[in-house]
Amino acid sequence: MAASSQIAQEQQRSAVLHRDIHHIPKQAVRGEGSYIFLENGQKILDATGGAAVSCLGHGNDQVNQAIVAQINQISYCHTAFFGIKTFEELAALMVNSTGNRLTKLFVISSGSEAMEAAMKLARQYFLELSTPQPQRTRFIARRQSYHGTTLGALSMGGHVSRRELFEPLLLPNVSHVSPCYAYRGRKDGESDEDYVARLANELDAEFQRVGPETVCAFVAEPVVGAALGCVPAVPGYLQAMKRVCEKYGALLILDEVMSGMGRCGTLHAWEQEGVVPDIQTIGKGFGGGYLPIAGVLIGEHIVDTLDKGTGVFRHGQTYQGHPVACAAALAVQKIIREQNLLENVRAMGALLESELKRRLKDHPNVGDIRGRGLFWGIEFVKDKKTKEPFDPKLGVSARVQNTALEPAYGISLYAGAGTVDGVRGDHILIAPPYNTTKEEIELIASLTQRVIEDVFSKISTS
Question: Which among 325, 291, 283 is positioned nearest to 90, based on CA atoms?
Fold first, then answer.
């Protein structure tokens, strides 16, 4: 039977609208620790935790027991009618983790929902002030960013390919400035200080262009995830951006859905930046993939404004504060603390950085290796000196991802494209669980090296 005919028949048997209807994914049947086991018996080293989600790996008994215990108590109740102790405990834990600098937690089911809620909350804040500012309807974000896939969140992001089909539907009141992307954005001989000053001036100019009195917030990822491939801000950048926001009375929203909750070595990525956001979105490592959950952490001044105003956040969803999801996240966060996993993230992250750079920094097609904690990206280039990217038609990052999943390697590497300008450029992400071991880190680095050497040896001869 022809391969195309077999795929067509398999697709007809599936009632699932897969991400690519021409590709039937391999069936996973079990997860244990850092590994996923497939129906065909293959074992995959999950070096990315999906999309940097599985921060404790797979099959954690403590989390599973917490989920079952909550189900046995109550699996769902609507937050308009009832409260849940698990939710209260989770919120208290998260607020305490910020040193009470962010004082309320709003819980929903996905990062996209978190960004939608953050946008609405920012807008409502300005309407609830003692002297309302209804003219504030705009947001400023960054190019080569990703903040979610719903229409508001997609409008906020600068991910060209994900926006492309839906541009006519996207919000006209979001504009974008340059990302903090030192590998390509910093000029030759330019210091970090000068680069930060230039980006701050660009943001200031954008405030002036759109009307500073019209802006609700500036939105950024402290470490850019899928859109750029684990690009951390240079020292002083977020502080400078916050100063611009404060100058014009706008809020700073930090999207830590991918980079937060310990992924970068501190529970909150902003802890390393010397800046506290007005609003923070969290997700992925919040619940470790055990159940869908994300959240919004909110500054006291915003809470106080609502308290003195209507006292009501004009936003709600059926599954917000879901009891079982909260139980899962609470268990995950307790394990991170009890097992001192942030220290392991920092130690294993340093080892991963060292191993990747030792093995790959001199590879002619590896342009940059960057990241923080257990959140690392590798950017590929056609020419190392000029940083010229590959032709997008070659699908370099997808080739790396697909090759890595082959039985010869058996490792997940998360592909990203459009790194340079939203269209050109390729990178991969590596994001192993917080409880990973030295042996697993060394294996990840070794397999990644072998996969990259395999892929580029074929590209150079094709």
Answer: 325
Distance CA 400, CA 377 (A): 13
In the block, tokens 């943001």 appear at 203
- Say yes or no to pLDDT of 455 above 70: yes
- Note whether 332 and 342 are within 8 A (CB): no
- 293 near 287, Cβ under 8 Å? yes
Closest CA to 434 of 313, 331, 324, 335: 335
DSSP state of 388: B
Domains of the chain, CATH where assigned: 28-59+341-460 (3.90.1150.10), 61-339 (3.40.640.10)
**Residue pair 312/135 in contact by the 8 Å Cβ criterion:** no
- pLDDT reading at 8 higher than 70: no
Average pLDDT over residues 171-175: 97
SS3 299: strand
CB 215 within 8 A of CB 140: yes
Distance CA 165, CA 159 (A): 12
Q: What is the pLDDT of residues 158-167, one digit of tens each?
A: 989 899 999 9
Q: State yes or no: pLDDT of 1 exceeds 50.
A: no
Collapsing DSSP to helix, strand or coil, 58 comes out as: strand
